[in-house]
């Protein structure tokens, strides 16, 4: 459907073209996602791998609403500094999860279009609803783990020795903190690589269609 194609173009601009999140684009994207989730329930829309991925992209914008609710509750409810820090980190992690999940899912849509264009027969066995569903679940699992680790930073500055936590647990937390530091170092280059990946595949498909 043309509406789904327009939605994908909008999402590509929102997540893979614009250098940073834009509040206006975010709100418009969330409204578009609500519309797309409604469209995908229509019987006339065939359930294909692309539709599954688009549905996951639309569902990712639910996290935008969660982030807004967290921001509102943070402003209304007065709490201690530790609780406020937790709420602030939670709001940021909702935004991170939305951006990272959407970017990865959009890259999967691009890859599928590339495979359809260049390897339609050879990749038919992996271009199905089951693989698209598994891929979406894996992306959500990775993003959830990432945000869980980021949320652990809230307790990094706290003195937790009085809780009687065993040394093994403290060592595990230290490992998590190092993993968080590594993830933060890799986030930007991975984002750049995703943009290059998408641009390259679109470039190949565009000139294939233009000169074929």
Automatic annotation (TrEMBL):
It is a multi-pass membrane protein. The keyword Membrane applies. SUPFAM superfamilies: Family A G protein-coupled receptor-like. InterPro entries: GPCR_Rhodpsn (IPR000276), GPCR_Rhodpsn_7TM (IPR017452). Gene3D superfamilies: Rhodopsin 7-helix transmembrane proteins (1.20.1070.10). The keyword Acetylation does not apply. GO terms for molecular function: G protein-coupled receptor activity. It is found in: Membrane. The chain crosses the membrane at residues 12-40, 97-119, 185-203. GO terms for cellular component: membrane. This is RCG38062. The lineage of its organism: Eukaryota, Metazoa, Chordata, Craniata, Vertebrata. The gene is LOC100359656.
């Amino acid at each position: 459907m043309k509406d789904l194609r327009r939605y994908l173009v909008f999402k590509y601009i929102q997540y893979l073209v614009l250098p940073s999140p834009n509040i206006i684009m975010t709100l418009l994207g969330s409204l578009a996602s609500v519309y797309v989730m409604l469209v995908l329930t229509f019987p006339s829309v065939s359930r294909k791998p692309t539709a599954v991925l688009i549905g996951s992209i639309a569902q990712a914008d639910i996290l935008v609403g969660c982030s807004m609710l967290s921001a509102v509750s943070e402003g209304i409810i007065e709490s201690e500094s530790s609780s406020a820090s937790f709420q602030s980190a939670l709001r940021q992690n909702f935004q991170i999860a939305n951006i990272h999940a959407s970017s990865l899912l959009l890259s999967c849509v691009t890859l599928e279009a590339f495979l359809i264009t260049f390897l339609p027969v050879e990749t038919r066995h992996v271009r199905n609803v089951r693989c698209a569903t598994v891929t979406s679940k894996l992306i959500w699992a990775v993003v959830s783990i990432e945000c869980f680790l980021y949320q652990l930073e809230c307790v990094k500055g706290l003195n937790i020795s009085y809780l009687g936590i065993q040394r093994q647990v403290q060592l595990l937390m230290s490992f998590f903190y190092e993993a968080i530091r590594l993830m933060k170092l890799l986030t930007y280059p991975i984002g750049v690589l995703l943009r290059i990946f998408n641009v390259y595949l679109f470039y190949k498909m565009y000139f294939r269609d233009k000169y074929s």
